Amino acid sequence: MMKKIILLIVAILSTNISVNAQEETKSIADDMVILMTSMKDYTLALAKQMPSKKFEYKPEANDVRTFAEHYKHMKNFMGFQLLLLNNKQFDLQSLITKNKTYEKTVISKENVIKDLSAKFDEVISFYKTTNNKSLSKTFQFIWEPNKPKRSHLLITMALRDHMSHHRAQSIIYLRENGIKPVQYKRY
């Protein structure tokens, strides 16, 4: 009888361990879905705070982006990161030219927000369909010195970091215009 109880306990524990292992297989991607959904909500809320008439605002310095350009740049950067994460081939110079043109073109606040929202949805969709094994794949940055290989997980971290960098700059622009930014949303 004791032997049967021990076997039953071992069977239950191994089932639990197996289920936990399967859940862990996708945990980083699942966390990114949660994080990117939160980032989308928070980023769009900040963009919506700037009045349309000030959407092209920038400080006196000539070498900085306008408020709108920061958000268009975030959209472009997410698109670039998706190319890397999906191992898509692309012509870097053409992509840079296309992205710079988009960023410098004045479009309505509504269209910037719509474009940014759609790109967030693409990124969220990517993470919904990926897993930790996929994030361990690498991409070779052939245009950089020494042509380093970077993991998709590192590309994922760079995406989050870059978005935070530009969003923070836009928060300063809001404050310079007397607008109190919405409360930070972590996740």
Widest beta sheet: strand line-up: 1-2
Order of helices and strands: HHHHHHEEH
Overall pLDDT? 87
Class in CATH? Mainly Alpha
CATH H level: which superfamily? dinb family like domain
Percent strand: under 5%
Helix content: 55-70%
Strand element count: 2
The domain tally reads 1
Shape: globular
For the largest beta-sheet, the strand count, sense and barrel status come to:
2 strands, antiparallel
Architecture (CATH level 2) name: Up-down Bundle
Provide the CATH topology: Four Helix Bundle (Hemerythrin (Met), subunit A)
- What structural class is derived from the secondary structure elements? mainly alpha
Helical segment count: 7
Stretches with pLDDT under 50, minimum 5 residues: 21-25
How does this structure look, described?
Helix content is 68%, strand content 3%. The protein has one domain (26-176): Up-down Bundle (Four Helix Bundle (Hemerythrin (Met), subunit A)). It is mainly alpha-helical. It is globular, with a radius of gyration of 21 Å. It has seven helices and two strands. The chain has a two-stranded antiparallel sheet. The model is unreliable at 21-25 (pLDDT under 50).
What brief labels describe this structure?
single chain; mainly alpha; Four Helix Bundle (Hemerythrin (Met), subunit A); 7 helices; 68% helix
